[in-house]
Amino acid sequence: xxxxxxxxxxxxxxxxxxxxxxxxxxxxxxxxxxxxxxxxxxxxxxxxxxxxxxxxxxxxxxxxxxxxxxxxxxxxxxxxxxxxxxxxxxxxxxxxxxxxxxxxxxxxxxxxxxxxxxxxxxxxxxxxxxxxxxxxxxxxxxxxxxxxxxxxxxxxxxxxxxxxxxxxxxxxx
Length: 173
Fold this sequence. Notes:
Involved in urease metallocenter assembly. Binds nickel. Probably functions as a nickel donor during metallocenter assembly. The chain is mainly beta and about 170 residues long.
């Protein structure tokens, strides 16, 4: 029987090579505590101090110092291209939609309503399957939920993995 590893530290910019990897979708890379099987078949219990967004290229550190690389899994996305890419990016961001921004295209998770809106705005929208590594957000903390940036309070959804917490919080738009 193989011993289960325990990882309690996340390194966004690991200093050394990884011994194994975890390939996870965007939604699956956001949690505090989870039991996972590495790509090499080893069981690991991830028990972080707080809910964390694990980014592609980061690593979990096991108790003995071993690193487990985080890799973005290929997943169903929409590739958005067009002549007015900055304008299209603005509309995507205005809807709090995670977006991977590249020089000649945008990648977002598949959503029929957003797809229709973008096509109406003149975008070329194509379904693709690729790893998804969206931008971390204006305040550099990705998709965490305890943040304050102003005096307005409102509620909005944060995806299916809300980890059982209250989605009402303060920040300005």
